[in-house]
Design a protein that fits this description.
The protein is built from eight helices and eleven strands. With 265 residues, it is α/β, with parallel strands linked by helices. Bound molecules: S-adenosylmethionine. It holds the Pfam family Methyltransf_11.
């Protein structure tokens, strides 16, 4: 599957996704994934940043609120429109652009840092996105990204629970089977039943890669790995939001920070 087909799927998802994410139904993102990501982010105040696959812009706004001058790009026009409308309503100085992460429309060395929240595993040629990101970063700049965990969120992940809903295990299959746009259909699980019933499920093309594929792509690009993190809910959050308790047993997300080497002085 190529970028045009991926864009068509995301464009079809974008309206409901935006409405549901803004209603707070993307619980994994809001209660776990983004807070953990931001907790590990180096200081970005005053820096020039690029958010790749920004969606409707929720995380881009958080980066701007932390003091960065942000540009957000996404392949789906409806996401960009919603992000721009939010910017017009509450200006944070963010520039949004329709663009493909595999062909970034920016000059070499344009950004101090880049982020990609849960978007790289949705792109067919992750090596190209990494190469493009490397190109638009200044020497010494970093990319921090989150992806579905390659080991525990394979094309088949099933949460096994006992009769009291306690998580017993995570069942994983097909780790070694790379996928080329295999469609996963789902809705935000935290949405109320009547909302779920009233919308078409999202259709998300997946491009699963193994952990060693990811590390080898990063190393081949010339980026240096400086941080990895596998967020898990703490016991208190799991009690308050039992929906997220599968991540007590095995992580759903993987975070990495990689850096473009600066020339030796
Ligand atoms: C799971 S959503 C994450 C959105 C947002 N970063 C967030 O955390 O809420 C993945 C995003 O990647 C975007 N995307 C997929 N392929 C892309 C590509 N080749 N270039 C740019 N964006 C892309 C999708 O349109 C979608 O907005």
């Amino acid at each position: 599957m190529e970028a045009n087909d991926v864009a068509a799927c995301w464009e079809a998802n974008a309206e409901t996704w935006t409405r549901h994410a803004r209603a707070g139904y993307d619980l994994y993102r809001d209660a776990q994934n983004t807070p953990a990501f931001l907790a590990n982010l180096p200081g970005i105040a005053g820096l020039e940043g690029l958010d790749i696959g920004c969606g409707e812009g929720s995380n881009t706004r958080k980066l701007a609120e932390a003091g960065a001058r942000m540009t957000g790009i996404d392949i789906a026009p409806t996401f960009i429109r919603h992000a721009q409308e939010a910017e017009a309503e509450t200006p944070l100085g963010i520039a949004y652009r329709l663009a493909d992460g595999m062909a970034l429309p920016f000059g070499d060395g344009s950004f101090d840092f880049a982020t990609a929240f849960m978007s790289l595993m949705d792109m067919p040629h992750q090596d190209k996105v990494l190469a493009e990101t490397m190109r638009v970063l200044k020497p010494g700049g970093f990319l921090q990204f989150s992806i579905l965990h390659p080991c525990f969120a394979t094309p088949h992940r099933k949460v096994v629970r006992d009769e009291n809903r306690k998580v017993l295990a995570i069942e994983v299959r097909d780790y070694f089977r790379p996928t080329d746009g295999e469609i996963e259909s789902w809705r935000f699980g935290a949405a109320p039943e009547h909302e779920k019933a009233s919308v078409e499920p999202f259709r998300v093309p997946r491009f699963h890669r193994t952990l060693s594929d990811w590390v080898n792509m990063i190393v081949a690009t010339g980026l240096a790995i400086e941080m990895m993190h596998e967020p898990s809910v703490d016991a208190e959050t799991a009690r308050a939001l039992p929906y997220l308790d599968d991540t007590l047993v095995a992580p759903l997300f993987l975070h990495m920070r990689v850096r473009k080497p600066a020339p030796a002085v």
